[in-house]
Amino acid sequence: MKQKLTWMFAAILTICGATMLSSCSDNTDNPVDNQPVTERATFEKQLSTTLAAASAEQKNLESSTHAAQVLTAFVENLNMEALADQLLEIMNSVLSNAETIEFANMGDQEAEAREALKNTFSKSADAEEFILVNAQAALGGIRMTFTEGEKKMNYETGIGEDLVIAYLNPTNGESTELKLRFDNPVDGVSLFIANVVNAIPVAIKFPAAINLTVNHTDNGVQKEVLNGIVTLVSPSGQKYVSLRKGDWDIAVMLGTTLNDRFELPAARIHHFADGTIEANASIFANSSEVLGLSVNSVGTPYSDEKMEELKEMRQDGPVFAAFYELLSMFNHRTGDAQLTLMNDLVFDINLTDIANAASAFGKSIRLRHNGGNPTQADIDPLVEELNKSLTFSVSQKSTGITADGKLMTAKINDHLVPALALRFKGESEFQVMNYNLTDADRENYNALMHSFDAPGRQLQKLFDAFVQKRDEFNEFNPFKF
């Protein structure tokens, strides 16, 4: 679930922030006379201050990048064949703490539980009973250790209170441990996850909070590279929920520290019973909010034919593949988003077609990566589609100035791309923002984009590793659930 949440925000950031987060270079082919007007001059002066502050604050988001590097190596070293070989043993251990519940004996909660099951596994809606697993009792104390060079995973139970997944390389002594600690589930919710035991539905009762820690040992020194908390609750008090429908709220808050530098990525999604979603994410570096994102979407569905057409975006990498999966799950067409840089530069975005915007931007990335040098004829149709699928304005909190925005085909670093263009009060034409940056602004801008690029590339590798391990597990999993 946390993996999907992370992918979702990465996809949203990609769509909403793409034109802002692209490196720039000096360009001499700007077709517009760049004589500034008062609002533009004031805006660009403050933008210089924002870019300088953001560039100085970022420092490559080194703590988050390091944590992602450790996690990527950890995931890559997990042996899915060894896990699948012992899956029956693990399931028997987990289910030994489970209870079988008959719907007929649930009283007032029967209707709620049946609705959650129907919304998750419609074919099992008429089941007479289900298996309920208490996450704290069933998973706490389990330790799974994957050792480099060994085909068998070491599976232990009754080891403390945490669920521990560990990787050990005995040759160099390097090791990584992921620890999950489950709070008391009294205030949590139950999710139906599978039909794996004689076709009887299985639900897991999650606590309201799960604490996580990642420790890494290198050269004999153990350090905590990541800690955090994941919360899952139903604001309306439901005890059984479906992630597809129903009222639920999930939040992830992580902390990373490297060289005395603290970073705090955080995200939250509230899914309402009517299908509306409110979401927000932020990155704090030390005490400054470097990047903030909020999104509201509504469930206007796409047709089956449109969803089939949109499958093409899965070719654009794991982020877009995960975005398609989430789109299939929630099927939301429209929404509003707000992207904030250094708590000052604000992009207010109205998405009239979320999928088309994602698809068009994915195609522009594919053109650059595969063809290397897109032409005007390649980019213009994508810019047109993006402008039909989203509208936006850009404002500064510090100056109170707001500019209309649109995307235009422009040459950035010798490549034609969809680029951000602004029009201020009193102006009749849009001007590409990158063209008006000073040399100092451009240097700070590129440093800032590099700062986002480093963790972004590492997260892409982490997504790749997750996808690879998921596919490997599906290949070896004897139960095929």
Q: Kindly state the mean pLDDT as a whole number? A: 83
- Side by side, the strands of the main sheet go 4-3-5-6-9-10-12-13-14-15-16-17-18-19-20-21
Helix amount: 25-40%
Question: What Rg do the Cα atoms give?
Answer: 24 Å
The largest β sheet comes out as:
16 strands, mixed
Low-confidence runs (pLDDT<50, min 5 residues)?
Answer: 1-23, 28-32
Through-space gap between termini: 16 Å
What's the total count of β strands? Answer: 21
Keywords:
481 residues; disordered N terminus; 21 strands; 36% helix; 16-stranded mixed sheet; alpha+beta
Care to describe what's here?
The protein is an alpha+beta fold. Helix content is 36%, strand content 33%. It has helices spanning 2-17, 38-58, 62-76, 80-85, 87-95, 110-120, 135-139, 304-310, 318-330, 354-371, 376-389, 439-476, and strands spanning 99-102, 129-134, 143-147, 154-156, 163-169, 174-182, 189-197, 200-206, 209-218, 221-233, 240-241, 248-258, 261-271, 277-285, 288-298, 334-341, 345-351, 390-396, 402-412, 415-423, 431-432. The longest helix is centred in the last third of the chain and has 38 residues, at 439-476. The model is unreliable at 1-23 and 28-32 (pLDDT under 50).
Please provide a brief summary of the model.
The protein is of the alpha+beta class and 481 residues long.
What's the structural blueprint in terms of helices and strands?
Layout: H1 2-17, H2 38-58, H3 62-76, H4 80-85, H5 87-95, E1 99-102, H6 110-120, E2 129-134, H7 135-139, E3 143-147, E4 154-156, E5 163-169, E6 174-182, E7 189-197, E8 200-206, E9 209-218, E10 221-233, E11 240-241, E12 248-258, E13 261-271, E14 277-285, E15 288-298, H8 304-310, H9 318-330, E16 334-341, E17 345-351, H10 354-371, H11 376-389, E18 390-396, E19 402-412, E20 415-423, E21 431-432, H12 439-476
Helix pairs in contact: 1-9, 2-12, 3-12, 10-11
